[in-house]
Amino acid sequence: MSFLQKISSNVKNIKQLEYSALAERTNQIREELRQGVRKPYGDVIDVSFGDPHRAGLKPLSFVRQVLAACLYPQLMNSDKLPADVRHRAQRLLESCVGESVGSYTATAGIPEIVQRLSEFITRRDGGVPSYPENIYISPGSQWALTNILKILVNTDGPSKTGVLISAPCHSITTLSILGLGAVPIPYYLNEDEGWTLQVEELQRALESAKKFCNPVALYIINPGNPAGPRHVQSTSSMQEVIRFVSEKRLFLLADEVYQGCVNGDNSKFVSYKKVLAEMGPPLSDTVELASFHSASKGFTGECGLRGGYVELVNLDPVVMKHIHTLFTTGSCAPVLGQIALDLMTNPPKPQEPSYPLYHQEVQHMRTTLAENGKKACEVLNSLPGFSCQPVEGGMFAFPRVFLPPRAIQRAKETGMQPDTFYCMRLLEEAGVLSMPGCDFGQKEGTYHIRLCIVIHKDIMENLLRHLANFHQKFMMDFC
Amino acid sequence: MSFLQKISSNVKNIKQLEYSALAERTNQIREELRQGVRKPYGDVIDVSFGDPHRAGLKPLSFVRQVLAACLYPQLMNSDKLPADVRHRAQRLLESCVGESVGSYTATAGIPEIVQRLSEFITRRDGGVPSYPENIYISPGSQWALTNILKILVNTDGPSKTGVLISAPCHSITTLSILGLGAVPIPYYLNEDEGWTLQVEELQRALESAKKFCNPVALYIINPGNPAGPRHVQSTSSMQEVIRFVSEKRLFLLADEVYQGCVNGDNSKFVSYKKVLAEMGPPLSDTVELASFHSASKGFTGECGLRGGYVELVNLDPVVMKHIHTLFTTGSCAPVLGQIALDLMTNPPKPQEPSYPLYHQEVQHMRTTLAENGKKACEVLNSLPGFSCQPVEGGMFAFPRVFLPPRAIQRAKETGMQPDTFYCMRLLEEAGVLSMPGCDFGQKEGTYHIRLCIVIHKDIMENLLRHLANFHQKFMMDFC
C-alpha cells in the first residue's frame, strides 16, 4: 500500500534495544498482578533506568519547592515556603520572558542561568575560566551530544565518519551515532582491572577503524555508565587520553553527567577541562573538547524535567558559528529543566533557611548510594558465577554473569541474547527489571546485567535477596 | 587550527533567521534602557513569538495549579487548591513511574495520557476513532514533525527528497527540512483572496520541483502561521487537498497546532483526519496522514513546558514499526509538558470546582484574541501602504507593507532585506519587536511583518499606536 518504499538506511540502523522486550513483559506482569494473578512477588522492582525516583528515592525538597513556586507564583504569598525558596523563585521568574515559565526562552538557554552555569564550572574547576558564550542548554545532555555529532559527522563524502565509543557504553549514544549515518567504533574497557581505559586499546580500535571509516572523535563517559575506568577515571589516565586525542587529531566528547555521583573513598571527580587546562600549552590551547552535564543525574535526578548543557572548549570560531546556529534555530529547552540545572549547580548556601534540609537530603542520598554500591558488590561477588567490580561512581552496578553453556544454548533456542534470557527469567521469576549487557556492548562471549543502585535502601535489600535466590536456582537449573 | 574542515552541507544549510539581528538589538536596547538611556518608549513590546505569556496574558490557573501540585505533592495536603485539582494531580502522579514527575516515562508518552489523547481526538472528530498506538508524545510538535520527516526523507539515493511547504510558512519547518538534506518546495498562498490555498498552485509547485528532486510530502499548517487559507481552511479546500495528495501519492503532514485558536464568526476548525474519514473509501483507507498538536498553542500557551504529539493515520505497518523505533529509543518528552497536553485536552468539566474560573479565563482569552484581531486589521488597513487580511484563526497578523522604492534602496545599502530593515526601524524608533516576512517566505517583491496578537488588550492598543505613528513617519521619510 505504502509509497514509502525507501526509508533511509540511517533510520533503518536504529534498532530497538533488547531491553524493549523486557519492558513490554513488565507491563504485562503488572497488569496480571492487578488482575490478581499470584506471583512470588507483589510488584516488579524496576532498576532498569538511572532515575532515582523510579525506585523509592524522594526528590530534593528545595528543588521542587522553587519549581512549584515558579509554576504557580501565588505560592510565594504564603509563608509555607522558606524565604530563600521564594526569593529564588522570584529572581528566576524575573529572568523568564513575561515572567512566566510558559514563555519560550532564548534558544541557547535563559541568559542569567547560562551565566551562572559558567560561574559554577569555574568554581568546580578551581578557577579555570568558563565563558557563557561557550555553553548551550538543551533538553537533556543527549540532545546536546547529538547536535555536536551533527557538526562532527560528514555525510557528503564517500567514506563514513567514525566515533570511538567505550564498550560497554550507554546505548542512546550508539543509536545517535548510527542515526546520523556514522559508525560507532568500540574500544573495550578492561573489566578485570576495574573497567580501566587503556590507551593501547584506543590505538587498536582507531587503527582497525581506519580501514572502513574516517574516525574524528573519541567519546568518553566518566564516571561511567554502565561502567567506567574504576567507575571514576584517574587524572593520569585522563592525561593519556588527552595526549592521544591531540596526537590523533580527534575531537574529545566528555560525557560527565555523573560528576555528582562519586562515592569511592579514594575517588574524586575531576573534569576533562580542568585536566586539560593544567597540562598547559600547546595541549590546553588546541585540544577540542565538549563536556556534557545534566539535571537528570546526580542527586538532583530530575530526569523527567529534561535539562542538560554542553560546554565547548578550543573550538574554531567558524565551527562555533555553525554550532551556535544549530542550537539557536530550534525551540528552547524546557524552562523547568533549565531551572533544575540552575538549582543543581547553585544549591542553598549554609546560611540560608533551606540549607539544613537540603544538606540532610543530599547526605542521605550519598550514604544510600555508597552503602548500596558496597552491599551490591558484596552480595553479587558472593554468588557463584557472578563477578562485580567495585562501584565508586555513577549510578550502576554492571556485574558479569558467567552463564552456563546450557543456559546459553537455551537462550539461542528462544531467539534471545544470553543475557537478555537471564534478565527475562530474573523478571519473570523474581520480579526484578534490569538491563542486559548486550544493549551496552561487551566483549564477545561475556555477559552482564545492569542494575541502578540509586534506590531506596530497603528496595536494594529486597532486590539483592530476590536476585540471589533466583540466581542460585537458575544456576542449578542449567548446570 | 581546527581539523573540522568538513562540516556537512546539511548543517551548512541551516542559516540564522533575519530575525536574529532584531533579537540581538532588542537585548542591547533593553540594556540601554536599564542604564538610563532616554528613548521614546519605556520598554520593548515583544510580539515576535506566538507565546501568550510573553506580552501580558496570564497562564490558566487550573493548569498551573495541577502542575504545581504534581511537582510538590505536599500542596495536596492543603485545601487552598480546589478538590478537582488535587484529585487530578493525584491521578496523574499515579501514572508517573515512582509517582514522580522526575522519573523517565515510557518514551512514547505516559500510557494513560496517550489513551486520553486518543479519546480527546475521537470526541473532537465526532466519533472518528483514534487509537493510542498511533499517537506519540514529543517535546513539542516540531520535534515530532522532524522525526516523521526523518522517515520520509531518503538520503541514500542520488536525488534529493522534496517536501511541499506553504509560503509563507513557519521558519522552523523549513529549517528542519533543510537540516535533513531535503528540499523545501514552496507553494504560494493567495494573499489577495485571504491567503487561500489553490490546488493549481500545488500542481505548479509539484511539477516544477520534479525537475530537481523527488517530492514525497505536502505540509499544511491550518489554522495558519503566519497566515493561512483565510487563516482557517474550508472543508471543500481540504477535500481538494486530500484528492491532490492521493492522486500524486504524497504523504500529508497536517500541522494543526492552532486548532484551539479560531475566532472568525464563520470559521470553525475541522481536522484533516475528520474530513478524510468523511470522504469514505478508497481515500479514507489510503491517504497517509500525520497530524500534529501542541500544548504551546491555543489558550493553554505553555510553550516553555515543551509538549506536543503526532497522530498517524493509514500508515503501512512496516513504516509504523520504524516510526515506533524512532520515537521510543531516545529519552521521553518533558513530563510536565505531557501533563500540560493532558490538561489542555481534558479541561475541567462544568460540575467541577475549577470550571467557573477556567471558563472565565478561556473566555477572556478568546475575546481578547477576537478583539485584537479585528482591531489590528482595522488600524493596519487604515494606514497608507499597509494591507492586512482578516485574522480568523491562529495567533498572528501578517500584514503586507508596500515599501517605497527609496526604503528598499536604503535597505540594500545596509545589507538588510527590505522588511528586516522596516522591522529594525520599527524596533529602534517605536520599541516594537516583530518578525520580518522574509523569514517565512513570500512572493518576490512583496514584504510583510508578523505580529502576535494573543497579547494583553492594553499592550495591543499601545502597539498599534506606536506602529501607526512610526509608519506614517517612515513613509514620509522615504517617499
- The biggest beta sheet of chain A, please? 7 strands, mixed
Query: Which class do the helix and strand fractions of chain A yield?
Result: alpha/beta
**What is the quaternary state of this protein?**
homodimer
DSSP strand content of chain A: 5-15%
Greatest interface by residues involved = A-B, 92 and 92 residues
Strand order of the largest sheet of chain A: 2-8-7-6-5-3-4
Gross geometry of chain A: globular
Looking at CATH, the homologous superfamily of the largest domain in chain A is Type I PLP-dependent aspartate aminotransferase-like (Major domain)
Helix content of chain A: 40-55%
- Report the uncertain regions of chain A: none
Mean pLDDT of chain A: 94
Catalytic activity (chains A, B): L-alanine + 2-oxoglutarate = pyruvate + L-glutamate
Protein name (chains A, B): alanine transaminase
GO molecular function, one term (chains A, B): pyridoxal phosphate binding
Domain Aminotransferase class I/classII large (chains A, B): 77-467
